[in-house]
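Notes to self after the Tuesday call (sharing in case useful).
The group wants a holo model before anyone commits to mutagenesis around the pocket. I volunteered. Ligand is zinc ion. Logging inputs and output together so the record is complete.
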Amino acid sequence: VTRRYRYVGPRRLADLASSNIERFEPTNQAELAAWLRTQGHDHEVTLTYVVTTLGCLRLSDRHAEHVACAQGQPVFGAGELSLLLDGAEVEVAAVTNQSTGYCPEPACFTAVAQALVAAQLEAPEGFAHAFVFRRCPECEGIVIVKDDEFECPTCALPLPVQWNFAD
Ligand SMILES: [Zn+2]
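Result:
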């Protein structure tokens, strides 16, 4: 079952959903290569991405918030995508689930890989870095768990072992 992730980030950023930014859903490498050039990229680029609930890869500039890229909608995955551009060919250098707006689980990789393949890109074996997010039950802050230390750095209290953004 593919989990739908809804926006869980700060409310002050939620208004960016309707912002007028570039959003692109590539269906093949040549189309993607052409779009990247219109965006001023000609070799290497890291972008913000989401996977829409239609299973499409959607790209925006890396400085764009995921909530803006997704237009505030739920997603199957979100993070950063690094691409290498060579003529009309595009190669995935790395992909992560780094999105503090959606805090997707590492398990969203399956949906991300499917979306990459649907865009005729070769998916890597897994996330270059799999981010583990939890919401602190005490301060409600979003915490990136490092080194399996399930503790809120602000409150020094334990974090749930299970992903806890569903409610
Ligand atoms: Zn806390």
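Two things stood out.
The chain has four helices and six strands.
The mean pLDDT is 96.
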